[in-house]
Amino acid sequence: MYNIEYRIRVGEMAPDFTLKSTTGREIRLYDCKNKKSVLLFFFNHKKAECLERLKTLAEDYEKFKEAGAVIFPISILRLDEGRAIVERMGLPFWILCDDDHSVVRLYNMGKCSSTPAHVCFEVIHGVERPTMLVVDTSGVIRYIQRVDASGNPDNLTLLEECRKALE
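Given the sequence above, the corresponding structure tokens read:
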């Protein structure tokens, strides 16, 4: 078996994945090809600023729908944990639960423990780099931006990038 390292850069194909959503349904990224642009939000569900960013995405959910975009928040958590977040926050979209860390590893959004003398066997403890990616209808990454403390990228920027990804 080969270990493929994908380049997660603008202009590259987004690696395909299938994850369970908080509805219990399996969601595949490439099922959106030729239909919608996709906003991937890799977030750490244990960080308040990431949850706040989820909340601001939820506020403009209808605008994203109107723009032909689907929002896929992804975090390393179990299905029950994801459901609790969706219910507690009243999110209008579901969370994709990466409980085996496979997609966070695939997109290089996490890192293993920083404990001294820790031997890494690719056990990832969380999303270390909260990041937004926009994937166009052909599966190509068109936008990547790390989420910063000031809330960037803002929803207007993300909406514009999602609209451009439909062209």
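The two ends are 37 Å apart (CA to CA). Try to locate this feature in the token string yourself.
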